[in-house]
Specification:
The chain is mainly α. The chain is built from 20 helices and two strands. The chain has one domain. A two-stranded antiparallel sheet has the order 1-2.
Amino acid sequence: MKNPMPSSLRDVMKITEEARSFSDSELTDVIAESLSKTSEEICEENVHNHGRYRKDLTSTLDDILTSPIIGYLSMLLLLVAVFWITLVGANWPSSLLFRLLFSVENYFVNVLRHFKAKEWFIGMTVFGAYRSLAWVVSVMLPPIAIFFPCFTLLEDLGYLPRIAFNLDTFFKRVGSHGKQALTMCMGFGCNAAGVVACRIIDSPRERLIALLTNTFVPCNGRFPAIILVSSIFLGAGISSMGGAGATTVWLLFSVFLGVVVTFIVSYALSSTILKGIPSAFAIELPPYRRPQIIRILLRSFLDRTVFVLARAASVAAPAGMVTWILANTYLQGTSLLLRLANALGPLGNAIGLDGFILTAFLLGLPANEIVLPILIMGYSSGGVMVDMNSLNALRGLLVSCGWTFRTALCFIAFSVLHYPCATTLWTIWHETHNIKWTAFAALMPLAIATGVCFLVAQVFMLLGIA
């Protein structure tokens, strides 16, 4: 008589048969869940607590911050708090820096005229290059000097992995990876940095999805224009408490729009040209740490604030110079800038914008920070960016050029969804080494931005709202 089959072998065969009924992704999740459950059982059997068991601070906070409801609510409140602190804190230093930088403009003009410089040279260097540079620095430096330390503080506390944990379910449902939440967070500071951060995703397919959709996260270069436009047309003005709250809501709306489009596009890509099985995402949540304030300030200032500002400043001056040349070079009595704006006018009007706005986005390809300065220069007579020393002055200029609530809403949507800046496109090419994916990363967001703005414009037109 043969010996009966050992029970351990029967168990193995049974498990093998069960495993065949799972797909690859389901089997990976089952294995991960089984390992975690077995570890807990071993720990309960062999580790004994003397006295009353007490949860540590990390476990207590994780029960709250990663819970199904409070976890998402806490993310929302933290995002609102960061935006509100950035808006309120940046208002006064931005005004001070604006007055300081523009107060020395006449000094530069007098010095150049003293040395018998030509008027065209003065216009190109001072009214073109310097004014664009001064606008970018004064509008951009205070917000990023506040936003980046707040972001770095959350990172140093260990909260960012909790965001990835909370959003993992959503990314898995759209066929992407939970770590994409971390790359999205990096994209708030700079989309180029978010693209580089996609390296943390091991799967090439999911890494490419994260890389192509990172541009829908509004970076710090887009925030100044969104802040100013929402303050003027959608809020009560950032000088008041209520205005800051209204502007914060619209900033939150822009982020929500970007995140929703990220999920939709990720699902579309994972279901079509980047079809595949989502990989498992096992994350070990680190313990909460006491923030190192000095280290946070130095790292956020040197590694992020200075880097982003230097990149913006390096392209703001040349772009302002080129814009001035286009605005002051005439062909048959019409400036080249006006000709370009007129050519783009029909498309701009169809999507709730105008030709000058599309021209500003086109010339602002080197950096998103210079879109609004170029637009102001284009709207201003003589191709010179006028001194916008208050929100009322800027509002008066935009309203006189036909801006309405619809224009502001379409401008914000286009700012959030349009193609990434030149630095981000170069970074995408460097990461993929594929010119086709780089071109797709530019054209796909442009098509989505155009489509969304067209729908918004048509809805407003049907409702009879200007």
